[in-house]
């Protein structure tokens, strides 16, 4: 039986990663699969950075074919339940409100209940994907749905027209000019273009120094935010220099602070750059589809569990035909960028830069392989329709 509607519950943890995934999934379920989608978000302020039309003060609004509702995810908060949709997605174990769970159990046809998990390349993901967990008290069953980089997982979010849009952008000077106008800057001739989206990072000053002192001109485009503030401080300027439109230059480095682009335009920034530094989950997935060399600033965790995830991703990437010296340079750079070791080392940009052609070829090959896993949204819909009673 077809799924026709969906509730997605999201709590914003690291500012953009959680809502970025949920907003992208919500739009795809609405626009490509024709679902009536209701997206519940606890932090509309962060959401508005990705979708400026969102009004953080409104409890209910519509955008992109999706109904957006604010909810209080704190324990014991009041919640007025609405009749649940055919599919209920609990994103990243955010815990559904008890009144909504009761409404799900009382529905004439209980919805399919999905816990959408975080992205990981670890081997155990395939073993746990699609496992079920009955509710201890209610007649409900929750299924665990894992994004992933291997068969036996849910794959990665990818819109059906994304490849065609990328090719159209790369072949259109007008589209590229529109992007640069939107960013408030222009590409520098003969410069290596780098997008830098990162958390505050102790390794950033050493990298900026290497770009400054290197022989290759680097144009670094950094969105307004923590990394821009850290870079402005490294240049010795006031915090105001972290505002969009600021250009800072030392030696071979030109750093330009750009506006925080809306989610639909972020792909174009990745396509226009030679190297992409990304953080969290949503931007990491988009960097894969950009088929450019990338560096992942994975969300840090106190128990260093993120290093296990990062190494699993690096090991899986190295198996897609990457030359050993390129794989080694990629691993060493990502380790330094993510603070490995009791005394973290500065990232070796010269070694990484020398392997960019090989890494670009490997990344293009890998993203083509990942397409064979299918799109996460379509995989999710097919999985759920097989479980509708």
How would you describe the overall organization of this protein?
The protein has two domains: 5-157 and 374-381; 162-371, 3-Layer(aba) Sandwich (Rossmann fold). The chain is built from 15 helices and 14 strands. An eight-stranded mixed β-sheet has the order 3-4-2-1-5-6-8-7, covered by helices on one side. The protein has a six-stranded mixed β-sheet with strand order 11-12-10-9-13-14, with helices on both faces. The chain is α/β, with parallel strands linked by helices and 389 residues long. It is globular and about 70 Å long. It has helices at residues 17-31, 44-50, 98-106, 124-128, 162-170, 173-183, 204-213, 226-234, 263-272, 282-290, 305-318, 324-337, 349-354, 356-371, 376-385, and strands spanning 5-10, 36-41, 60-63, 66-70, 87-91, 112-116, 132-134, 141-145, 192-196, 218-223, 247-250, 253-258, 275-279, 294-297. Helix 3 links the parallel strand 5 and strand 6. InterPro entries: EarP. Protein-arginine rhamnosyltransferase that catalyzes the transfer of a single rhamnose to elongation factor P (EF-P) on 'Lys-32', a modification required for EF-P-dependent rescue of polyproline stalled ribosomes. One of its GO terms (molecular function) is translation elongation factor activity. It comes from Cupriavidus campinensis.
């Amino acid at each position: 039986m077809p799924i026709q509607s969906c509730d997605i519950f999201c709590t914003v943890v690291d500012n953009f990663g959680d809502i970025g995934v949920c907003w992208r999934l919500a739009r795809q379920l609405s626009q490509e699969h024709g679902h009536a989608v209701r997206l519940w978000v606890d932090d509309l302020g962060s959401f508005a950075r990705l979708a400026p039309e969102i009004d953080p003060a409104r409890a209910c609004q519509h955008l992109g074919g999706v109904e957006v509702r604010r909810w209080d995810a704190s324990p014991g908060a009041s919640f007025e339940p609405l009749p649940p949709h055919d599919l209920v997605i609990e994103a990243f174990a955010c815990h559904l409100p008890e009144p909504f769970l009761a409404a799900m159990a009382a529905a004439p046809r209980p919805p399919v209940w999905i816990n959408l998990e975080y992205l990981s390349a670890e081997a155990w993901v395939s073993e746990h994907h699609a496992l079920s967990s009955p509710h201890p008290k209610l007649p409900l069953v929750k299924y665990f749905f894992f994004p992933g980089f291997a068969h036996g997982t849910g794959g990665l979010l990818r819109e059906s027209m994304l490849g065609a849009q990328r090719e159209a952008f790369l072949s259109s000077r007008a589209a590229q000019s529109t992007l640069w106008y939107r960013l408030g800057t222009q590409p520098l001739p003969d410069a290596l273009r780098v997008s830098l989206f990162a958390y505050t990072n102790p390794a950033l000053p050493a990298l900026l120094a290497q770009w400054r002192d290197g022989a290759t001109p680097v144009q670094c485009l950094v969105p307004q935010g923590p990394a821009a503030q850290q870079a402005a401080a490294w240049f010795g300027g006031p915090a105001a220099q972290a505002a969009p439109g600021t250009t800072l230059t030392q030696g071979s480095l030109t750093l330009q602070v750009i506006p925080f682009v809306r989610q639909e335009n972020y792909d174009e920034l990745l396509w226009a750059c030679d190297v992409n530094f990304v953080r969290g989950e949503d931007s990491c997935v988009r960097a894969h589809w950009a088929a450019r060399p990338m560096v992942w600033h994975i969300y840090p965790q106190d128990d260093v569990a993120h290093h296990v995830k990062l190494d699993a991703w690096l090991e899986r990437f190295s198996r897609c035909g990457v030359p050993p010296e390129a794989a080694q340079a990629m691993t060493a750079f990502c380790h330094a960028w993510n603070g490995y070791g009791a005394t973290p080392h500065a990232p070796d940009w010269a070694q990484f830069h020398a392997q960019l052609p090989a890494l670009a070829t490997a990344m293009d090959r890998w993203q083509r392989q990942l397409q064979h896993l299918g799109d996460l949204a379509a995989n999710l819909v097919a999985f759920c329709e097989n479980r509708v009673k």
